[in-house]
Amino acid sequence: MIKTLAKHLSGIALTWVLVLAATFFLLRWYSQPSAEREVPALAGLSQSDAQDALATLGLEAVWQDSIYAPSGTPGAVVEQHPPAGSSVKVGRKILLTTYRITPPSERVGIEEGQDAKLAERILSTRGFEVELKEEPNKLLAGKVLRVTHRGEIVLPEARYPKGTKLQLVVGVAGAKDVRVPWLVGLSLKDAKGILSRRNLALGHVGYGEDVQSALDSSLAVVVSQDVSPGTQPYVEEGTAIDLYFGKH
Fold first, then answer.
1. Which residue among 100, 110, 113, 230 has its CA within the 20 to 30 Å range from the CA of 162?
2. Is the pLDDT score of 14 beyond 80?
3. Beta bridge partners of 28
4. Using the 8-state DSSP alphabet, how is residue 162 labeled?
């Protein structure tokens, strides 16, 4: 029995010696210079190139965040941690931040009549590229007339990606007198076109009692205008002309 116990004790002792020896050699291997790597500079690399560069060194890429910048290359690395030149162990996770591939969307939020300078600052702060266009309009001089994108009017609640080019149309006082056009008998679309070409603004639009439906409105024509060429041949650029519509 004593011999059996001695054998068990010696076996246990031998097992512990082997475990301690293996631990010792593992720690020496892990702490030796060959198990350390220098973190490369990854800024500007694409996600796949950065991941391949780290994998070659036995390091792991972890994407922790993405940011948007108009000048940044979508998907490229912009920040890393630990920084380039750091000495790390094999298998270390390297945290990477990249530029967003898809720009975030922002609400336009600009309405007719807002101060033009304030509207321009708001749009720029929201990341839009703003193009100013002046249009004669005495009533709304210095104010926003409308916001357009590729020729289409943009509603305040519309959302576009940051970096989108928007045109801010601003009213200005006219510099000269223009002839008042005769608009009676024209549709709303045709009347607006003529006013625009004369650098005049469309004022209030009213409808007679005989215009009761959407179809009536689409077929209605100008029956009177508050400023007519017979009584006032010339007005300043940007003057708003009120129109009153009825059926043919």
1. 113
2. no
3. none
4. T
- Rg, Å, the chain Cα set: 37
Residues 185 and 165 in one domain: no
Residues 155, 216 share a domain = no
One domain for residues 132 and 73: no
Q: List C-alpha distances in Å: 63 to 53, 98, 126, 176.
A: 14, 8, 26, 61
Q: Distance (Å, rounded) from C-alpha 142 to C-alpha 164?
A: 23
Residue for token digits 């898809």? Answer: 102
pTM of the predicted model as reported, rounded to 2 decimal places: 0.58
Assess whether 90 and 141 both reside in one domain: no
Query: For residue 24, what pLDDT is reported?
Result: 55
CATH of the domain at 165: 3.30.10.20
Backbone phi and psi for residue 167, each to the nearest 5 degrees, phi listed first: -105, 125
Mean pLDDT, the chain, integer: 88
Domains in the chain, number:
3
Q: How far apart are CA 237 and CA 200, in angstroms?
A: 6
CA dihedral 30, 35, 40, 45 (to 10 degrees): -90
* Domain encompassing residue 225: 177-246
